[in-house]
Amino acid sequence: MLTSAPLRYILRWRRRVCRPCTTPTTLEIIKELLMRFLLCWVSLSISAAVAGPKEDAVRAGLQALSNQVAIERVTAVADSPLYEVRLASGETLYATENGTHLLSGDLYQALPDNLVNLTEQARWGGRVELMAAVADAETVIFSPDGPVRARIDVFTDIDCGYCRKLHAEIDQYTDLGIEVRYLAFPRAGLQSDSYRKYVSAYCAADPHDALTRAKAGKSVADAQCANPIAAQYELGNQVGVRGTPSIVLASGQLIPGYVPAAELATQMGL
User: Fold this and answer.
1) 53-105: CATH number
2) pTM of the full structure
3) Tens of pLDDT along the chain (270 residues)?
4) Is 95:102 a contact under the CB 8 Å cutoff?
5) Rg of the chain's alpha carbons, rounded to an integer?
6) Thioredoxin-like fold domain spans which residues (predicted)?
7) Active-site residue, from 86, 157, 159, 203
8) What is the dihedral of CA 165, 167, 171, 174, to 10 degrees?
9) Which residues pair with 255 in a beta bridge?
């Protein structure tokens, strides 16, 4: 039986993650695109035949089907007849070179003793750029007393049980040299109590204390200020957050769900 880190993460996610009530993505647009693609496969094939380079043909065919989907790049998948179509929203599609089939989902490469999620690996670089653009001043950071051996970005929700469990063990992460940078991802949306609680914690005179109190189920005084909570929620959707907590490593790898400090340190090679 093949084993892999991606599959283990999927199983862990089912056990250790709080799922959002809604997750706005471009998936509905993709589904519509797939239906239109099925109806229009003949015209797409003709377009692919005359457009020139195969990557350009795939791009032209998809854009002809829908102007609602912005295509960032089209690249050939090594050792495969497929072409990776990266959307500006962060989603990835795959198209055959003759333009008659389109696939939405993750592509895995079967190695002798492992399965490699090629789609997820392709997302890492984009995540690194997006996370690097977030200023530290817009986050709540819990740092080690000693040297920082690694930094993780954690998309978190005030009321998520596993988010609270992670934060209750925050000293275990920092004791191992792991700096935790929190970003907001209120699962129930921007009109929810969780959103308002996060705004109040962020805008408090001492955000670290307020966030700790809120995650312990204690009340936090209402507060308002210019804040990045909505922007971070949108960023979470863009980088692939589908539940909380979600951990983004410096490499761009996204780990869904709670991971104990010692286990996470081992995964990062600390």
Assistant:
1) 3.10.450.70
2) 0.71
3) 333 444 444 444 455 667 655 444 555 555 555 544 443 433 333 333 333 467 776 766 666 666 666 777 788 888 788 888 777 776 777 877 766 677 777 888 888 888 888 888 888 888 999 999 999 999 999 999 999 999 999 999 999 999 999 999 999 999 999 999 999 999 999 999 999 999 999 999 999 999 999 999 999 999 999 999 999 999 999 999 999 999 999 999 999 999 999 999 999 999
4) yes
5) 21
6) 154-266
7) 157
8) 120
9) 247
Question: Is 56 annotated in the active site?
Answer: no
Cα 133 from Cα 228, distance rounded (Å): 13
Report the alpha-carbon distance of residue 178 to residue 146 in Å, rounded.
Answer: 10
Residues 270 and 268: their CA atoms lie apart, in Å, by: 6
Q: Give every CB contact of residue 29 below 8 A, 6+ residues apart in sequence.
A: 66, 68, 69
Q: Is 225 a catalytic site residue? A: no
Residues of the chain with CATH 3.10.450.70: 53-105
Residues 120, 23: Cα–Cα separation, whole Å:
18
d(CA 161, CA 17): 8
Q: 78 in the Ramachandran plot: left (φ > 0), alpha (ψ -120 to 50) or beta?
A: beta
User: Tokens at residue 137, please?
Assistant: 């001043």
* Arch. (CATH architecture) of 128-268: 3-Layer(aba) Sandwich (3.40)
Catalytic pick among 160, 164, 181, 196 = 160
φ, ψ for residue 15 (rounded to 5)? -95, -30
Domain(s) of CATH 3.40.30.10: residues in the chain: 128-268
d(CA 169, CA 15): 18
